[in-house]
Amino acid sequence: MNRRTMDKIPVFFLLLFTSLLVSKAEAMGWKAGVAKTIITPEENIWLAGHDRSRPADGKIHDLWAKALALEDSLGNRSVLVTLDQLGLPKAVSDRIRERIKSDLGLTKDRIILNSSHTHTGPVVTGMIMDIYPPDIDDEKSISRYTSWLETKIIQVATDAFSAMFSAELYAENGVTRFQVNRRNNSERTLAQQTELKGPNDYAVPVIKITDHQSNIRAIVFGYACHATALGGNKWSGDYPGFAQIELEQMYPGAVALFFQGAGADQNPLPRGTIPLTKQHGLTLAVAVDRVLHEPMRKLFPVFLAAYMEVDLPLIDPPTKEEYTKIVDEAEYEFCSRWATRMLEQMAKGQSLMKSYPYPLQVWNIGGQPLMILGGELVIEYAIGLKRIFGQDIFVVGYSNDMPAYIPSVTILREGGYEADTSPRVYGLPSVWSEEIEPIIYQEIKKLAAIVGVKEKLISKNK
After folding, report:
1. Is the pLDDT of residue 430 over 70?
2. Residue 94 and which of 24, 49, 293, 321 are 20 to 30 A apart at CA?
């Protein structure tokens, strides 16, 4: 036997070993479980999102928490929880994830808590509280609901793991186009416009979960668009709620789970009525249904995840004199309440935050990358991440924490609500530094490398 033949022996056995592992993994396959529970408040507490003058007074349809539990061929487990909610603040999200860790053994990298961002869902404790003028009784009601919601979320995650079945997973992107960039198009003159301006990302990411009899058991789908088709004072999941209802009617026995994408600067237009909201929901459901009927990529039964919280810097906060001027001269009452609270913190000797621990997460579900980011993520991040990692990735915003809008450098320089006013809505002491966008790209690249998601192109985003 010559040296060249001997050198090939280890390679042969390595390839054989790898082939055997692949065959074993494919034979063992995925396990999945799905569960859902109603989270409509039992009391008429305040609705979240819009500036309202009174609490809720009824419902259009129920709100839901839904969970998809996954276990890969190596026993790695994870859970996606989707919520008909405006969002979960860090304190609430941390409590839920700590409890899931205690009960189910899942660390933060293996848990996604995604909110649809419906503006006809309930307020939770610690979220955008300066907008509302509730008295102490209302605060107690909100606190009771928040505690009850946390319990329901933990239970639905537990229930999903209790309902596991042998599964196959498939993924693909669809498309639909009712999102409109609200910064670059006037809602008031929309009917007269003959051309809409971007940026936009019309992708409809879809994951199909079937049992071994090819029955669809769960449909995970997303879209990057604000859930603001409805206002008013009645509970609803907005267009994502109607889309989920429609899909569950199309596929009896399946659970439809919606996740919000990078839709912070995108609105469903036109909007404002229940029929229009149903139309947007049906449009999205039909886009998902089309994907389900076409060939989809089968996902290999190996799951990888990575998570971090990165400090995103804020610019220096206003001075005491500048806060006082805002209290006296602010156009909006919530800005006065916000500035008053900042002054109270300063008077107590409390330091105002200079940065925020922002959650970043990457999942690799059998070759399907999910880029998961917190806050109200603007569409430029979806475009930027796809430029880096390719058009097939799924971008998930509004996850695990809702610190504020996450604007791009372009938006920070242009100014406007997303850049200048929204930090006050969320209670931040000042606006974001322009450093946040490059930091986010830099750190999510590191997480992607950990889970084997490769960069596709040389990116403009350093």
Report:
1. yes
2. 49
Per DSSP, the residues of 166-185 read EEEEEEEEEE---EEETTTS
Number of Cβ within a 10 Å radius of residue 263: 27
- Following DSSP, what letter does each residue of 349-365 receive, concatenated? TPPPPSEEEEEEEEEEE
Q: Quote the CA–CA distance of 280 and 179 in Å, as a whole number.
A: 9
Contact 283, 204 (CB under 8 A): no
0.70 surpassed by pTM: yes
Closest CA to 303 of 216, 359, 369: 369
Q: How far apart are CA 301 and CA 61, in angstroms?
A: 36
CA–CA distance, 219 with 289 (Å, rounded to integer): 10
Angle at 268 between CA 177 and CA 331, to 5 degrees: 145
Q: Which long-range contacts (CB under 8 A, 24 or more apart) does 18-21 make?
A: none
Give residues with Cβ within 8 angstroms of 312, minimum separation 6.
355, 356, 358, 432, 433, 435, 436, 439, 440
> CB of 401 within 8 A of CB of 85?
no
Longest CA span, the chain: 90
H runs (alpha helix) in 118-235: 136-161
**What is the per-residue pLDDT across 36-56, written as a single tens digit (0 to 9) for each?**
999 999 999 999 987 788 899
Coil vs helix vs strand at 376: strand
Helices (H), 257-357: 274-293, 320-329, 333-347
Per-residue pLDDT tens over the stretch 281-291: 999 999 999 99
* Pick from 420, 64, 51: nearest CA to 258: 64
201, 378 contact by CB (below 8 A): no
- The percent of residues in the chain predicted with pLDDT above 70, rounded, is 92
282-307: b or e for each residue (b if 16 or more CB lie within 10 Å)? Answer: bbbbbbbbebbeeebeebbbbbbbbb
Tokens (6 digits) for 111: 């848990």
Q: What φ, ψ does residue 29 adopt, rounded to 5°?
A: 70, -170
